[in-house]
Amino acid sequence: MAEAEYKPLNWSPTPNVGYTVLRRPDGGMHFIFTDLSKPTLDHWQEFALQHLYDSDRLTRNLYDLRQIEVVPEEAVQRALEANSDPAARNIRLAVVVSNEKVRIATQKIADLTAGGGVEMGIFTSIDDAEAWLDRPLTTMI
Hints:
By secondary structure, the protein is of the alpha/beta class. About 35% of the residues lie in helices and about 20% in strands.
């Protein structure tokens, strides 16, 4: 599928928002977080939910949390809401972390949303996350 065939990302940098997002070559999204402040969480939640509602196929997303030292409870709750949304069906989500605190918080999200349509993997390496994302999506159906 050519890049032009993917739906638009509809994201642009916003002051005081601690993440960026790019369209992945497979049509999914690659999020890179630098903070999990309230303005960041507000912006991310609105952006992510809008893309969930527009989702029309199996999707691979990558969340890079390697710059995050601690995941606040508010971020955990918002991720649980997003992963539990019925529109989150058929998403393969790789999360890359750099420390045990972030891994534990991310595992909590994965455990509490298991079976809800989001297939989630936690990694310490971008290469490992990409290899996992590259598996055939038909294993999710």
